[in-house]
Amino acid sequence: MSLRDKLRDGTPVTLDPATPAQSRYIEASWIQEAIDANVPVILEHAIIRDPLNLRYKSIDKEFRLNHCLFEAAADLSYANFKAVVDFSGSSFEQPPCFQSASFEFDLLLNNVVFLAGNVCCSRLTIRQQLLATGIVFRPGTAAQFSNCNCAGTAVLTRADFGGRSDFSDLHVGGDAQFSGSHFRQAASFENASVAGDLLFGVNAAEALTGARFDAEANFNSLHVGQKANFRGAEFHGNASFIWAEVKGPASFGTDEQGLNAAHFAAAADFRESHLCRDADFEGISIAGDMRFSSAHCDGTLTFKSAKFVGAAAFDGLCIGEELNFEGALFLSKTASVDFEKASVKSSLFFSQSKFEGGVSFEGMKVDGAAVLFNETQFAQPASWANASLNGACEFLGARFLGGSRPLFDGAHFGSACSFDGAVFDDMLRCRAVEFEREASFQGTTFREGANFFASHFSDIARFDSKPGEAGRTALSAAQFGGVASFDQVRFERDARFDDVLFQRLVSFRETSVRVLHFSLSGRVGEQPQFQGPLDLTGCTYDRMRADWKSVLCALRTFESLPDASYNRQPYAQLEKMYRAVGQDRDADNVYLARRYVEADRLRFRREPFAWSMDRFYRLLANYGVRPHRLIVYALVGMLLGALAFHSPGSVDVKQGSAANQGSEGCPLTPEHSLGGLDAVRLSVRCFLPVDISLLPNCVATNNFYGKLRFQDWAALLHLLGWLLVPVGIASLSGILRRVAP
């Protein structure tokens, strides 16, 4: 029986591939005759020389042409196959056309080789499976699978696409598998839809590597109903997943052994994509730009240990659970990383990550339990301006290098935050920041200073040292190598600067604090706590625990600056505080220090009267504070008076007194003077500004004592009493400390 007859009878025909080609030639018309006879076509290792035209044909029986060679074109467009169709192992020298063909059962293209042209498989309809393992499109041969519909599984593993491949608008009702496939030119899966799992990654069960894309890979608007696996996939051209949607977990990162992370040699674009479950990018490397702007991930998005060589944009990112960048490396020194207005419902992790370029977290919102930047390094400008971080926030051991310009202006910390052990090589700007819970800067180094202008600390602010605890090492206090500004800051509770070292200006201008803690000894170790000026202008507090001498010394250093001006309020506030807690001696010392400062600012040529009165007030009563000198002045005055009244001719009996009365009321000596004790008594009577019954009949004479008369000495002694006694009373009552002369 001839080959033609066998085909026409539906007999399977298997030719020997070792025989000469002439013995394996099959006319295309013989196949058409078998189809017309409604018998199965089963042919193997045949060579079909002329065109096969099955256009619009309806094939009811099994159709298998395995390991055949099609030397001419084959047209199966619009054909309807109602049984299994199998071209496995066949080769097409001319591009076949499967456009709009319909397959009621499986379509098998395993190890099929397309040698040239544009293979059109668009608008295929496959009711069950598409099996095309090892399918090959030789270089320059395009694969057109756009608008195909496969109700079952589509398997194109180990495929080799030598030309452009188009799977746009592909619909797969089951799983789609492309593991081990190689896309040598641009590949498009735009608007493709896979109801089951999509697999481009490593398939360990079948020893398949991840897919490789040598040119652009377009997955824009891709829809995956379940898992998407790209582990081990290599993208050597731009990869675009704009508007892609994955209902199940998306895997690009390492497996359980820490291997097979996806690699992006160019840009990766996931803008406005929607990842409905967890998305894993752990350990991936991206040589180009990463764009994740306005993307959504309803689960956890992980980029642990990822490596970003180009720019990275995550602005507007919305995360339903955690966002994890632990150990991630952002290596571009010229491109920035953008997380502006990103939103994270759960925790945020950036511990041990590294930013070689700038990074912006401006407007970011994190609602979860933790925000961790522990041991993270920032080399260029880093900003958290207007960010809202509501979880416990930690920057433990973080490093902000010179040029990083850390910026937290307007940020909101809804829970406890800690910068313990952090190092700021650049100026920290932390203006108008809201700290709702305890804020800790213990062990923090501010080499260029810090600016906390108008910030609000609702709980304790700690800048002091931390003793060692279980599992944690001790921390020294914060150090300010540059200017420290706390102007207009509001501390609702304690501000702990107990052993903080301020190497330059520290300013608390218009600051409000409940309890302000400085070093009680005024020193930190062997060094003064305030090595620069201290500005307390307008600062108010309920208590200050400090060494007032060191505080006032630093305050005077500030007042000596060329652009500074004296203000009484810091002294008055400190004095008021000491009096409120019963430390009157310290309050007096502060008061005296203020008066000395004010006195030093007076100039005789400019204000002679004020200068004179101030010096007189100081010499007379020590500004009303502990005026012991008044006693000395009084004693000296009364002693001089006693010496005068002990001199001959100094005292006489008051006129009008009887002789016997005079001797009793004024016991004169023959030389008309008084004895030593009586001279003292008369001196006391003359000194006191009120009359007392001491030697009432004795009066000073008009005789000269030196250049003054004794009466003049008595008058001067009386004037001295009128001056010193009221001043002493006023000093004891505190009047002179409240109202300056």
Provide a descriptive summary of the structure in words.
It is a single chain. This protein has eleven helices and 87 strands. It is an alpha/beta fold and 741 residues long. The protein has a domain at 628-732. The strands form eight sheets. It has a 41-stranded parallel sheet that branches. It is rod-shaped. Residues 658-662 have low confidence and may be disordered.
Gist of the model:
This protein has 741 residues and is of the alpha/beta class. It contains eleven helices and 87 strands. The chain has a 41-stranded parallel beta sheet that branches. It has a 21-stranded parallel beta sheet. It has a twelve-stranded parallel beta sheet with strand order 16-20-24-28-32-36-40-44-48-52-56-60, with no helix packed on it.
From the structure above, extract its key features.
21-stranded parallel β-sheet; 18% helix; 741 residues; alpha/beta
Largest sheet: 41 strands, parallel
* Radius of gyration based on Cα positions: 49 Å
Give start-end ranges of low-pLDDT stretches.
658-662
| Residue-averaged pLDDT | 90
Helix content: 10-25%
Q: Please report which band the strand proportion falls in: under 5%, 5-15%, 15-25%, 25-35%, 35-45% or over 45%.
A: 25-35%
Helix segment tally? 11
